[in-house]
TrEMBL record, chain A:
Keywords: Signal. It comes from the Bacteria. SUPFAM superfamilies: TM0957-like. Coiled coil: none annotated. Residues 1-22 form the signal peptide. This is DUF2291 domain-containing protein. It comes from Roseibium algae.
UniProtKB/TrEMBL annotation, chain B:
Residues 30-281 form the Periplasmic binding protein domain. Gene3D superfamilies: 3.40.50.2300. Keywords: Signal. It comes from the Bacteria. Residues 1-26 form the signal peptide. Pfam families: Peripla_BP_4. The keyword Cell division does not apply. It comes from Roseibium algae. InterPro entries: Peripla_BP_I, SBP_2_dom. This is D-ribose ABC transporter substrate-binding protein. It is found in: Cell envelope. The lineage of its organism: Bacteria, Pseudomonadati, Pseudomonadota, Alphaproteobacteria, Hyphomicrobiales. Belongs to the bacterial solute-binding protein 2 family.
Length: 215, 313
């Protein structure tokens, strides 16, 4: 049996040898060694967002965006028909319809001090706000993820990983837009983004990927 | 062996809850396997699936695994032996259930999962789960509003081995943690249990008398917490749950618990049967394997419309 002092001696000897070793980090290691469980989610999800947000999500939303007034008219006649024509619903009948949208409107109300900052836009010139632009940092939903056919829930480990993707995409979108400074009342905003609707009477909350405030 | 006889064998072999009357012309059989019906959520699932299957002309074999993966495996054997054409399953463990579902697949019996995921895709035909993250965010938004965006609160977490416990907690915190004046002073698992929640709530209250709100990972724990708060004369505390049970609905209508989040258990089970029917008739559901079903906030405004995990319009 080893004498009690032997182990510490070995440890000290091993530590002394360490500086002689050089730890080489390879590029491959970073993706291959990401743990498959929840502890690897952050790394994996940020790689997915890096790979696909600019190259896939943004161009897909821009190329499929429906004009907001077209969508509003269609939704007024029935959400499912509007969804069939302009939306996607990857999870089927139990989930919301998701739409890529674009439009222009006048700011009729705003809340820029809240953690869930918003702009209410009047897009049909009736003096009333008819859509809400979400400016975060707290935003509702996962419209960016769910409007993007590149992300398929079946390919993710579980809801937890898939939810983290939704959140990371929202964060990526918010990082790319600049909220208006000062009092923006009455200014005109053009936007491109995504929205999810569960029922025709839901308020339309858009998470923008592009936002421009006319001066 | 005719169907009646095979059903009888299955009945004797294992815990058997109920089955449809056997029709003169033997119809195709759908097996419905869930956790125990003492939790009304699972009973609603089984009832929803059975009702839909009967509407579509199937016979049903309703079984419970009581969250025991070994028992679940035996129930699969019995469903296979009984000649089931499809299996509707709320499973007994994300990892442990893969083998049972694979066993059915190997003899070309498709499984349609509800409520809980399994860790492998490509084994079941459908996995329809509640969008727990979306639901938790709805609950958290309501909680933040009720709290006036400020104050001390406690969280009761579900069973750690269940994915749904973790996802609800992260959905809550992704919203609540954005409000710096909301301070979590206690967080503990009560394992989905009403009695554990009661005891934990008592202790939490003693240690943190300034608690203004409690957010709970499910309704049974919310009921336990509310009972402890009532006993301590602290009915001022805001409690929000998750599931949409009739118990919490009744509490909301009496001004007790303030809100919950409905998981559409009944509709989810029906949807699984619809997909099974389509798959059996056409060879495809036409949908992705894994599907998320949205949850709905329930508070005093719509509580009267809630009955057995379904909201009427």
């Amino acid at each position: 049996m080893l004498k009690p002092f032997f182990l510490p001696v070995c440890l000290v000897a091993a530590l002394c040898l360490l500086p002689a070793c050089k730890i080489v980090k390879t590029d491959q290691a970073s993706s291959d060694e990401t743990p498959a469980g929840p502890e690897g989610d952050e790394t994996r999800v940020s790689l997915i967002v890096e790979d696909s947000f600019a190259s896939n999500v943004i161009p897909n939303i821009k190329s499929t965006a429906t004009d907001i007034s077209t969508l509003q008219k269609a939704v007024a006649k029935g959400l499912d028909a509007a969804g069939d024509a302009y939306g996607v619903r990857p999870s089927g009948a139990g989930s919301s319809w998701n739409f890529a949208v674009t439009g222009k409107g006048k700011i009729v109300a705003h809340n820029l001090t809240s953690r869930a900052a918003t702009l209410d836009l009047d897009t049909n010139s009736d003096g009333q706000g008819d859509i809400i632009l979400q400016l975060g940092p707290v935003v509702k939903g996962s419209a960016l993820r769910d409007v993007s056919p590149t992300y398929v829930f079946t390919n993710f480990r579980d809801q937890i990983e898939f939810a983290k993707l939704g959140r990371a995409l929202n964060t990526a979108a918010l990082a790319g837009i600049t909220p208006p400074a000062g009092d923006p009342s009455g200014k005109t905003v053009t936007f491109v983004g995504a929205t999810s609707l569960r029922s025709a009477s839901d308020p339309i909350r858009v998470l923008p990927i592009e936002l421009e405030v006319a001066q | 062996m005719n169907l009646k006889r095979r059903l009888l064998v299955a009945t004797m072999a294992l815990g058997f809850v109920a089955s449809a009357p056997v029709f003169a012309n033997a119809a195709d059989l759908i097996a419905i396997i869930t956790p125990g019906h003492d939790n009304p959520f699972f009973k609603a699932e089984a009832d929803g699936a059975a009702a839909r299957a009967k509407e579509l002309g199937y016979e049903t074999l309703v079984l419970v695994h009581d969250d025991d993966a070994n028992k679940q495996s035996q129930l699969f054997d019995s469903a296979i032996a009984a000649g089931a054409k499809a299996i509707i399953l709320d499973n007994a463990g994300a990892n442990a259930s893969v083998a049972a579902v694979q066993k059915a697949k190997d003899v070309e019996i498709p499984s349609f999962l509800i409520d809980r995921e399994i860790t492998k895709s490509g084994v079941a035909v459908s996995q329809i789960v509640s969008n727990n993250y979306q639901g938790a965010q709805l609950g958290a938004e309501e909680f933040v509003r009720l709290m006036g965006e400020t104050g001390e609160y406690a969280e009761l977490v579900g069973k750690e081995s269940d994915t749904n416990a973790g996802i609800r907690s992260s959905g809550y915190h992704d919203v609540i943690d954005q409000y710096p004046d909301l301070k979590m002073v206690a967080q503990q698992s009560a394992n989905w249990s009403q009695t554990e929640a009661y005891a934990i709530m008592e202790t939490m209250l003693q240690a943190n008398p300034g608690i203004k709100g409690v957010i709970s990972g499910n309704d049974t724990m919310a009921m336990g917490a509310w009972a402890a708060l009532e006993a301590a004369g602290r009915t001022d505390v805001i409690v929000v749950g998750f599931d949409g049970s009739n118990d919490v609905r009744d509490s909301i209508m009496k001004g007790g618990i303030k809100a919950t989040v409905l998981q559409p258990a009944y509709a989810q089970a029906q949807m699984a049967v619809d997909q099974a029917d389509k798959y059996l008739k056409t060879g495809s559901t036409g949908l992705d394997e894994k599907q998320l079903m949205d949850c709905v906030l329930v508070n005093a405004d719509n509580a009267p419309k809630l009955e057995t995990f379904a909201l009427s319009n």
